[in-house]
Write a structure and sequence with these properties.
single chain; 34 residues; mainly alpha; rod-shaped
Length: 34
C-alpha cells in the first residue's frame, strides 16, 4: 500500500517537471517568434 502511494507521488512529480520544461520551452519559442 505504502509502496503504491510512493510510486504515484513519484509519477506526479515527474509529470510536474515535464510540464515545467514544456512551459519554459514554449515561452522561449514564443519570444523567438516575436
Amino acid at each position: 500500500m505504502i509502496q503504491t502511494m510512493h510510486h504515484e507521488g513519484h509519477k506526479q512529480k515527474e509529470i510536474v517537471v515535464a510540464i515545467d520544461v514544456n512551459q519554459s520551452t514554449i515561452s522561449r519559442e514564443l519570444k523567438r517568434v516575436k
